[in-house]
Amino acid sequence: MSARGEFSSRFGFILAAAGSAVGLGNIWGFPNQVADNGGAAFVLVYLLLAFVLAYPVLMAELVIGRAKRSNMVDALGKISGNKVGRAVGIWGCITVSLILAFYAIVGGWMIAYFAESVTSFVGATAVSEWLVGFSTSRNLILCALFFGLTAFIVTGGVRQGIERWSVRLMPTLIFIILLLIVYVSTQEGAAEGWKAYLVPDFSKVLNPELLISAMGQAFFSMSLGVGTMLVYGSYISKKEHLPSLGASVALVDIGVAVLAGMLIIPAMYVAATNGVEILDAEGKLIGSDQLIFTVLPALFDTIETVGPLIAFAFFALMIIASLTSSISMLEVPVAYMVESKNVSRKTAVWSIALVIFAVSTLIILNFSQLFGLVITATTEYSQPLLGMVLCIFAGWVWNRNGLLNELKEGSPDIEGTLFWKIWPVYVKFICPVVIFFMFIRSVL
Predict the structure, then answer these.
(1) DSSP H or E stretch at residue 23
(2) Close Cβ partners of 426 (under 8 Å, ≥ 6 residues apart)
(3) Number of domains in the chain
(4) Residue 1 placed within a domain
(5) Would you say residue 5 lies in a domain?
(6) pLDDT of 297-333, one tens digit each?
(7) What Pfam family does this protein match (any one) (predicted)?
(8) CATH number at residue 101
(9) Where would you tag: which of 13, 130, 261, 432 has the fewest CB atoms within 10 A of its CB?
């Protein structure tokens, strides 16, 4: 076992990395995008772009991480040979910390609705009202609880923390999704939802807005650009075949996103059949936070007898999805503090968690001004630019022989494969250009 930690098995890494990728971006974001962008037409374009755009960037992070066996700051510093790489690494640590700052607030909301499914069932009305009411005290307490859960897992390290819990949480997440899909599909109105999800409107496939949205979803749902996959890659054994490992992670991530759509979109049409309003003023399916915190809870309320049980299972799912991502985010700055500053893991985890919680507190106390601003600054501006820079590091700064030699570690015959003939060109020329175009479109 490596002194700095290493995943004990291929299965453990796939579940941990897929868990990092499978977060609210899949369970919440993907169905929202489907609802907003023509149903099955969006699904079709997303599936294509996930492998055309996101997979090559994912591979760049994994290769850099495993080759340099370091945190993001040191790994990029080693590739560049100067302070520029380290500066990019620190930029990544700051970005992922800011993402975790708002993500933990949303994670706290998931805990609130999960707990409310229990308190409403037992008739604790006052507690239920506090849990679903938007108050500063609720947001602070439950955000702190979410940070506590995240820090507890990361304190255990790679094998006893991240891998151990990912192997437990990810199968549970998939089981709950499948269970809920089966239940929702038996309800009146579900067939119409399945039709909206699976029958594409091909007239929308080439819509520029749909293409940009699909690229963004494919990129962000895999946790790319902020160093989570780079750090996880640094814990992979040199014996592993990286291209197939990366493909496995991408497939699990895409699969969970597609499964989430199979649950959420039919559930919305079931809600409509039960008298819940699912269309906004413009006649579009309701998305964003209203979908998770208004439409679906209203649906659960209309289901007699098992409604609280369905709500309990659904928000348990949301908490698991939140946690599997948050532990990977916290690991990025923790790995830097442990390796570069020689801080003990326990001290690094709890001190960084407290600092990021302080930022979350600042956002909560100035919610209307800061919450949307931090989301936009990190996920729409900083993250795609970081992804583009990582492609430049893999394709331009790091020499081609360095890439090839690292890939040969787990697959000696990689040079003659289709992957090696295509991927270096993709990551060097196509990915940076496409990501830059996506960034410009989102800014404009």
Answers:
(1) none
(2) 56
(3) 1
(4) no
(5) no
(6) 888 888 877 888 998 999 999 999 899 999 999 999 9
(7) SNF
(8) 1.20.1740.10
(9) 130
